[in-house]
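Subject: for your reference before the review

Hello V.,

The reviewers asked for a structural picture of the protein, and I figured it would be easier to keep everything in one thread rather than splitting it across files. Below is the amino acid sequence we used in the manuscript, unchanged from the supplementary table.
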Amino acid sequence: MFHKLTSTEQADLDLANDLLSTGLDMISDDVVSVYEKVLPESTYTILLQEVVPRLVEPGSDGDYFTHEQVRTWGVDPVLGAPEDPGTEYYRTFECPVGLDGHLYEIVVPMVPPSWNSTDRVAQYEAAGNHGATAVGYCLLDTLQPAIDESEDYYQHSVLTHFLLDGHNKMEAAARQGTPIRLLSFLDERISISSMAEVQTVIQSLSRPQQARVRPH
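And here is what came back from the structure prediction:
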């Protein structure tokens, strides 16, 4: 991915960066044309949404992999412990989806937030981000255990955005609890979901946020 980036014209990159810093109100052909040279060849659904990120540490109360995932799949039988995401990440949204499922949206930085530029983060905080836009490569995995033997059995739709641009912007938004726009390229071919499930999740993104209500 990063090797291919060297073939992108610098003028195109500068234009894309300027547009992302100003903020996108709609999907920009100029930005898409830059990232289509970088991303793997596939079929994509392009999303532009507004998210409010919350930084989560592995093993903390807000960690999906320690709590929601464990209640449905249990701990890793080999390790005897929950899955370790290996990095801090951002949780942004969740809501019920489908007949008996729940959507969890996650943004994963490509480098730890501790590597971000403190000066750049502070600049975005001072500016209030003002619609600044981050970019992510996105996968949707829709999964459910084959057998109902868990504490909380249901279908998980996990929408994961891997940040390609906007690490400082995302941290600034998380620190302030303010929205940031996110342009994402959802890879339909790699995602473990049908097109019907992709469309259902996209429609669900416009619903109010709602935590899972576990059945009694």
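For the response letter, the relevant points are probably these. DSSP finds seven helices and seven strands in the chain. The two ends are 47 Å apart (CA to CA).

Happy to draft the paragraph if you're swamped.

O.
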